[in-house]
Amino acid sequence: MLDDIPLEKRSAYHQELYGCAEARAISEALYAGVNPKGSVMVAAKVGGKKHRTLKPACDSCEILLERFGIIDGAR
Ligand SMILES: [Zn+2]
Can you give the pLDDT at residue 67? Predict the structure, then answer.
């Protein structure tokens, strides 16, 4: 999914494939036959002092969200 995003535009989270929850969630939706266009995605930190803090998409995921027409609910 991230293969065509140039390396210099990928965030540190995406040094590994599917580094962020967003990419994984989009992939699973597509695999399940769901078109995510128009949906709202919200990611949150899990664990630690900032548990449940909303987390805006990283630079790479922002590109993915735009590409699939998904709204980042944390912004
Ligand atoms: Zn990301």
Answer: 95
Query: pTM of the full predicted structure?
Result: 0.75
Q: What is the DSSP string of 14-70?
A: GSSTT-SHHHHHHHHHHHTT---TT-EE-EE--SSTTTT-EEPPPHHHHHHHHHTT-
Q: How far does residue 10's CA lie from ligand 1's centre (Å)?
A: 8
Model confidence over 8-45: pLDDT tens digits?
666 666 655 557 889 889 989 999 999 999 999 999 98
50 Cα–ligand 1 center, Å: 18
Residue 67 Cα to ligand 1 midpoint, Å, equals 14
